[in-house]
């Protein structure tokens, strides 16, 4: 039996939550009173009910379960492809890039790409292009031979300008270099019905993986969007999904007071209503650094909304900030401790790192250094996280800690799923649609207009006249 199916092992690898420092007893006046949680219980129960009713439409909720066939296909594909390619490049942006990046960083060697191939179990290097920056793109092509590279174009809509531009560039290059065989170097992950990519992929014979209907970009990491890149680099995607399923069952079976996703969301929203407009996610582990990037998109795009569900203008949302412990103790923590009372800091603490690094005993005559000797970097990280939580608590600042017994596919699967449901629940509490992103559309349309896409001529006129009006505030030498 696979270890992650063993209940004892699961219990030892379950996330834990310390929410003490969100409450008034721990931090004083800025904290939340238990009475406030009580008062909002009815709203929370309504949110729970509403989310339950919506579940059949929220296909991302079922990703931990319904993918046995696709997982086998992905694993089989990845096992074959790993021998053929030196590089695996994800062409995508936003929800089609941040998840693959976060999971790769969390679960592979921290210098995975720099390792010799035999230490990567013969698997390709992974690159994720999350932008349209010409220098980065050209630099990437300087680095690799297209003949040794497999490109995974990921786009739910099948028409995002940044991704499709990257795709057009790569396709042309592959055709030029490899002639008829170019299509063997392209894999498309996209919607089965809409968008241009699926049509092109079918016409030209690329390997295709589908993003299930009802799974939006930022909720798509646990479908082929994230599973294929993860499997290509040897991550156990079954364990990742088992972690998500474990969290789903936890969430579904517990009442509010013991429900990590609902309680975290409720405390964040209560804090937000008291003026805490900023949600900082601060992992104390380099491996979890990009989980904070992924979370930032999820929280910002899902909850930052002008209108509520009735159409009333509300302009709500908490601004996510990504930080890294210990690094940002030397950059941002001064502000968190003494600046405005406008933040909730969520720490991710790892109990058992995959490596232990001992600090040698040395400089015994220097008391300000000697005490470090004999400890480990592991202990140092742990002490720094506890110390920062203490300093924030002493300064009366809202903070909480999510504890990962260790970083493995099971705990990462739990974490991703937890944040997804927390976000959806927060959307219910704020009474907004957490699954659309109308605010992104205006910028997308303006880009189309500037680049001359047919149908956007009027937008171009609007844009150019706006530019003339504001030209007097443009400074140059
Ligand atoms: O969450 C979302 O829907 C967006 O952030 C998308 O992921 C992003 O805009 C990329 O879209 P697509 O996957 O359609 O290329």
Features:
binds 5-phosphoarabinonic acid; single chain; 5-stranded mixed sheet; 477 residues; 19 helices; 47% helix; alpha/beta; 13% strand; 5-stranded parallel sheet
Structure write-up:
47% of the residues lie in helices and 13% in strands. It is α/β, with parallel strands linked by helices and 477 residues long. Residues 93-96, 155-157, 160, 163, 216-218, 301, 437 line the site of 5-phosphoarabinonic acid.
Low-confidence stretches: none
Radius of gyration: 24 Å
Number of helices: 19
Q: Could you estimate the helical fraction of the residues in percent?
A: 40-55%
Beta strand count: 12
**Spatial strand arrangement across the major sheet:** 1-12-11-7-10
The biggest beta sheet reads:
5 strands, mixed
* Range of strand content: 5-15%
Record the SSE blueprint.
Blueprint: H1 7-12, E1 16-18, H2 24-27, H3 34-39, H4 41-54, H5 68-84, E2 87-91, H6 98-107, E3 125-129, H7 134-143, E4 149-155, H8 161-178, E5 186-190, H9 196-204, E6 207-210, H10 224-232, H11 237-253, H12 260-273, E7 278-283, H13 289-303, E8 305-307, E9 313-316, E10 319-322, H14 333-338, E11 343-350, H15 367-370, H16 377-394, E12 398-404, H17 409-430, H18 438-450, H19 457-470
Parallel strand pairs: 2-3, 2-4, 4-5, 5-6, 7-10, 7-11, 11-12
Antiparallel strand pairs: 1-12, 8-9
5-phosphoarabinonic acid (PA5) binds at residues 93-96, 155-157, 160, 163, 216-218, 301, 437.
């Amino acid at each position: 039996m696979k270890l992650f199916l063993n209940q004892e092992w699961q219990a030892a690898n379950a996330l834990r939550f310390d929410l003490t420092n969100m409450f008034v007893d721990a931090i004083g006046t800025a904290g939340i009173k238990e009475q406030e949680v009580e008062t909002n219980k009815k709203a929370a129960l309504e949110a729970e009910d509403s989310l339950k009713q919506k579940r059949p439409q929220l296909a991302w909720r079922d990703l931990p379960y319904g993918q046995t066939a696709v997982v086998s296909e992905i694993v089989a594909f990845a096992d074959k492809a790993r021998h053929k390619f030196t590089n695996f490049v994800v062409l995508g942006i936003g929800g089609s890039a941040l998840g693959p990046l976060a999971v790769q960083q969390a679960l592979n060697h921290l210098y995975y790409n720099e390792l010799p191939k035999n230490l990567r179990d013969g698997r390709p290097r992974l690159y994720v292009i999350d932008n349209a920056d010409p220098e980065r793109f050209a630099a990437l092509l300087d680095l690799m031979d297209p003949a040794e590279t497999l490109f995974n174009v990921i786009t739910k809509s099948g028409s995002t300008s940044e991704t499709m531009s990257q795709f057009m560039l790569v396709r042309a290059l592959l055709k030029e270099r490899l002639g008829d065989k170019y299509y063997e170097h392209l894999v498309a992950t996209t919607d089965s019905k809409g968008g241009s990519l699926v049509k092109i992929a079918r016409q030209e014979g690329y390997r295709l993986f589908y993003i299930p209907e009802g799974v939006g970009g930022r909720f798509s990491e646990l479908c082929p969007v994230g599973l294929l890149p993860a499997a290509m680099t040897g991550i156990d995607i079954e364990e990742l999904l088992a972690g998500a399923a474990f969290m789903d069952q936890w969430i579904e079976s517990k009442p509010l007071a013991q429900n990590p996703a609902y309680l975290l969301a409720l405390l964040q929203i209560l804090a937000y209503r008291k003026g805490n407009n900023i949600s900082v996610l601060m992992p104390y582990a380099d491996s979890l650094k990009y989980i904070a990037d992924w979370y930032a998109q999820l929280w910002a795009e899902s909850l930052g909304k002008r209108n509520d569900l009735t159409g009333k203008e509300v302009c709500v949302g908490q601004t996510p900030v990504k930080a890294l412990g210990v690094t940002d103790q030397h950059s941002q923590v001064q502000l968190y401790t003494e600046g405005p009372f406008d933040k909730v800091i969520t720490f991710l603490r790892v109990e058992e790192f995959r490596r232990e690094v001992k600090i040698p005993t040395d400089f015994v005559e220097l008391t300000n250094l000697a005490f470090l000797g004999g400890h480990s970097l592991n202990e140092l990280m742990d002490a720094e996280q506890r110390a920062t939580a203490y300093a924030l608590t002493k300064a009366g600042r809202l903070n909480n800690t999510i504890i990962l017994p260790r970083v493995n596919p099971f705990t990462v699967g739990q974490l991703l799923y937890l944040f997804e449901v927390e976000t959806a629940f927060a959307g219910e509490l704020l009474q907004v649609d957490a699954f659309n992103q109308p605010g992104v559309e205006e910028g997308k349309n303006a880009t189309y207009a500037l680049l001359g896409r047919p149908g956007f001529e009027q937008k171009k006129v609007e844009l150019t006249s706006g530019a003339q009006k504001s030209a007097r505030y443009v400074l140059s030498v």
